[in-house]
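During the no-cost extension, the postdoctoral fellow (Dr. R.K.) reprocessed legacy sequence entries with the updated structure-token encoder. One reprocessed record is reproduced below for audit purposes.
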Amino acid sequence: QVRLVESGGALVQTGGSLRLSCAASGRSFAFYAMGWFRQAPGKEREFAATTIGFNGADTYYTNSVKDRFTISRDVAKNMLYLQMNNLKPEDTAVYYCAASTNFCSGSGCTRDYNFWGQGTQVTVSS
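Re-encoded structure tokens follow.
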């Protein structure tokens, strides 16, 4: 049984940093893409960033987080991370870890994820 568990969410001031972690268990070897999505209050869940490839060597970001967020995957430890720097109030959201067994590339990796975590809250105060 696949399980994704996020941690690291917190309250932080504008300009601050946070590192989110996602621990994967189960068939993590079959994950081709592992990424982060987020859902702000009153809004739909949106894609933030993903690693691509069984070794997580490639990455893809939505424009709003590019150059501020860094995603990484540690295959040996079954972990996914999201380093978030220069946080802004508009980054406030519940952040979800997600995994996909589907082959994809670039913007094609922003959808069709099979497995989801329960989410962790990130709040950025102004």
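The mean pLDDT is 96. The two ends are 40 Å apart (CA to CA). The remaining legacy entries will be reprocessed before the final report is submitted.
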